[in-house]
Write a structure and sequence with these properties.
292 residues, alpha+beta, Pseudouridine synthase, 3 domains, ten-stranded mixed β-sheet, three-stranded antiparallel β-sheet, 7 helices, 17% helix, elongated, EC 5.4.99.25, PsdUridine_synth_cat_dom_sf, RNA binding, PsdUridine_synth_N
């Protein structure tokens, strides 16, 4: 079964565990998601089943917006509530100073991913190695923070909203905030509010129409060349409907969707007039946006 789903993952279940539930519900063995949510985290998770798993790299899931609560004085190996080793008492801070520090984390931010992460080391997940007590050394990297919003401070808890690039670790961001405040800390709560324009609803699964979710316009094709698409033959931009050729803007939209009754394809137009297939013959499941 082909389906594109926007689901709300509850806290305290792994993304793979939640995906297993979805696979059972939709009676499918093939499924994937756009980006892992930590087991303690909750929120939006874009899921695809069947051949729609091929669509995931093409769907706009950036920026990602998170709401998090940082627990000052709590020490955790994973920077979340799963592996707390001890909790220290910390003196209250001036609220305006806390706001200033939180909202200063905008732009390119250098950090080291936590050992308990989905990063791979020689083909193995870092979190799997960390759980076995193995020594983990992850390379420093960067994330981009588009905006940071201070939400509230009720000592020792600081809540904030972060709008960040794909692949960012909010646990590491929380740790950096604590360090700049002269302390250490771990996240006690984390929610992914949205991925791009996709916002899940708690307790519901929304079935998305892929043609409305993919960030590409649809181009009509000259009926004379319809059979070419069925066979996956090479086409040129001269095969497009003449009424739309003049409207093609390669700087704005080099990628387009071509749709037929049974399937659709994603193509890329090149300046030399050629066309390449990014995905061809994706069976179209006629789903409407609805909530279960």
């Amino acid at each position: 079964m082909n389906a594109l789903l926007l689901a709300y993952k509850p806290a305290f279940i792994s993304s793979n565990g939640f995906l297993t539930q979805i696979k059972r519900s939709y009676n499918t063995s093939k499924a994937g998601f756009s980006g892992t949510l930590d087991p303690f985290a909750q929120g939006s998770l874009l899921i695809a089943t069947g051949t729609y798993t091929k669509l995931l790299p093409f769907i706009k899931t950036e920026p990602k917006v998170y709401e998090a609560t940082l627990w000052l004085g709590a020490k955790s190996l994973s920077l979340d509530t799963e592996n707390i080793t001890h909790i220290d008492s910390t003196p209250p801070l001036d609220s305006s100073f806390v706001r200033e520090v939180v909202e200063s984390f905008v732009g390119e931010i250098a950090y080291t991913p936590p050992a308990f992460s989905a990063k791979k080391i020689q083909g193995k997940r870092a979190y799997a190695m960390a759980r076995l007590g193995q020594s983990i050394e992850l390379a420093p990297t960067t994330m981009h923070s588009y905006a940071m919003e201070f939400l509230c401070y009720a000592h020792p808890f600081i809540s904030f909203r972060a709008c960040v690039s794909k692949g960012s670790y909010i646990r590491s961001l929380g740790s950096l905030i604590a360090q700049k405040l002269g302390s250490f800390g771990t996240l006690s709560a984390l929610k992914r509010v949205s991925e791009g324009d996709l916002v899940a609803q708690r307790g519901k699964i929304i079935e998305l129409d892929p043609l409305k979710t993919l960030p590409y316009p649809t181009l009509p094709i000259n009926p004379h060349y319809k059979e070419h698409f069925y066979q996956g033959r090479k086409l040129t931009q001269n095969d497009l409907d003449s009424s739309v050729q003049a409207k093609v803007d390669l700087d704005k939209n080099p990628r387009y969707i071509v749709q037929f009754d049974e399937f659709f394809s994603i193509i890329q137009l090149h300046r030399d007039g050629s066309i390449s297939y990014l995905l061809n013959r994706i069976d179209y499941a006629h789903t409407l946006q609805k909530a279960r």
